[in-house]
Amino acid sequence: MNILDKIIIDKKREVELKKSIIPVSQLEASVLFNSRTYSLSKLLKNSFSGIIAEHKRRSPSKAIINNNHSVEDVVLGYQNAGVCGISVLTDAKYFGGSLDDLLLAKASVNIPLLRKEFIVDEYQILEAKAHGADVILLIAAVLTRKEIKQLSEFAHSLGLEVLLEVHNLEELETAIMPSLDMIGVNNRNLKSFEVSLDYSKELASKIPDEFVKVSESGISSFEAVKELQKYGYQGFLMGEHFMKTENPGSEAQRFIQKLVI
């Protein structure tokens, strides 16, 4: 059993436990549930950099990345740097995140927030909406086409955008549908953790132009972003590169300034 399989087993158990304690009605009663959402896809289409910066404390492949900064400081730094959106890890066991991180981010900035999570149930989408998310992530590797359709349409009914993550052509061809806003290619194989930008390059021409193309993971230089822009990518999800520094916001600002020169 690989790490992704373990994460999904744990996630399904976690969701069922949460359902037994916090009813849907409580999530729908959240002060944020009917709040305005921001469009990440529109910002990416009109951006010179396309950077989506991530708040990420740790990961199964890298252990501790950065546990020293508050959520507020990191996301404010990102917003001041001029990022298009912020990805917030909410998985606790494997990434050290929480829904509280998303809530604190919402209270701190006014740019699109992506709930970075292993979503397997509509309940998690309600959680995302109740805690201030603007976008959800769906991972093709762990969902059937029917599940992707159900979850993406449900997200749209709540006013949330959908970023679908794929890793290979089979996943892309199986999962692509009108109820998606952005297609992300993960350069990190979630089963082996091997990283290569070739995954994004190879799939670029297969992604229809109606979807905003996003390259995820393994991006650590502005040269890599420039190269991927040639393949039609408008979004670049970066977490570890910024979070491993003493000041993630300052590093994001330096990175973006190099891109727009």
UniProtKB/TrEMBL annotation:
Protein name, per record: Indole-3-glycerol phosphate synthase
Known EC number: 4.1.1.48
Source organism superkingdom: Bacteria
Source organism (scientific name): Flavobacterium lacisediminis
Alphabetically ordered keywords of this record: Amino-acid biosynthesis, Aromatic amino acid biosynthesis, Decarboxylase, Lyase, Tryptophan biosynthesis
Family matches, as InterPro entries: Aldolase_TIM, Indole-3-glycerol_P_synth, Indole-3-glycerol_P_synth_dom, RibuloseP-bd_barrel
Coiled coil feature spans: none
Catalysed reaction, written as an equation: 1-(2-carboxyphenylamino)-1-deoxy-D-ribulose 5-phosphate + H(+) = (1S,2R)-1-C-(indol-3-yl)glycerol 3-phosphate + CO2 + H2O
Amino-acid biosynthesis in keyword set: yes
Keyword Zinc: no
